[in-house]
Amino acid sequence: FERSYPKFFLWSSTCSKSKTHCILPGLYAMAGAAAALGGVTRMTVTLVVIMFEVTGGLTYVAPIMIVVITCKWVGEALTADSVYIEHIRLKGFPYLNTKEEYDEAFLASDIMQPSRYGEPMKCILKNGSTVKDIETLLVETKFNGFPVIVDNESYRLSGFVTRRDLKVALHYGKLRNKNCDSSSVIYFSKRFPSNEVSQDVSTLSFRHILDLSPFTVTDSTPVVIVIDMFQKLGLRQVLVTHGG
Questions:
Q1: How far apart are CA 198 and CA 153, in angstroms?
Q2: What pLDDT, on the 0 to 100 scale, is given for residue 77?
Q3: Is the CB of residue 177 less than 8 Å from the CB of residue 125?
Q4: Residue 239: enclosing H or E segment and its boundaries?
Q5: Which backbone phi and psi does 62 adopt, to 5 degrees?
Q6: What's the CA dihedral at 98, 103, 108, 113 to 10 degrees?
Q7: Per residue in 81-92, is it b (16+ CB within 10 Å) or e — as a string?
Q8: pLDDT tens digits, residue range 51-102?
């Protein structure tokens, strides 16, 4: 178009003084590529630097910056997040957006699962659970881990054990102890209290798989702090306690 109408008012003052074509198709191609990438990924400064390093055109930095920022604004007006975050959500992967704002009035007790009105989470007794109890728990639930509590009355937390470690410990415990059966008692303490079980019943020690210091928060912890822990520490779960 510039070649056909060199005296058009938008570029006549500039192109008439130049012996070569002042509108370069390569510049528009580069700006278009930066615009497409910037609108999809929402990159700004990084994208401008990449385009400069690829082309070496220092004089084109300013127009590319304008194009990239404009496309970012247009993209944010259409969708809030980049294509990468949208793909994560499409696949159903757990993701906590660092840019999203959360209400500080919400507490850990408001978002914990199960809720305070729901069915209590399945726990394991520190001392007294049988092999059958653990096997039934693994079959009937899909949790990746279980809190270990002192007793069913106080629900005082003693530690945390993962599903995988329970399966492995059960397998090798049966191999090492030939007397192990469904009635064998499992304990997570240093020593099992001898007065709580008959001497005829075999026992299995699972203390080596017990995490004695799992990540915990109180039920009154602001949800902002809980989310910050998940984002920065890469946690899979956090235990919510009330009075220990």
A1: 23
A2: 85
A3: no
A4: strand 239-241
A5: -60, -50
A6: -80
A7: bbeeeeeeeeee
A8: 888 877 777 788 888 888 998 888 888 877 888 888 888 888 877 777 777 7
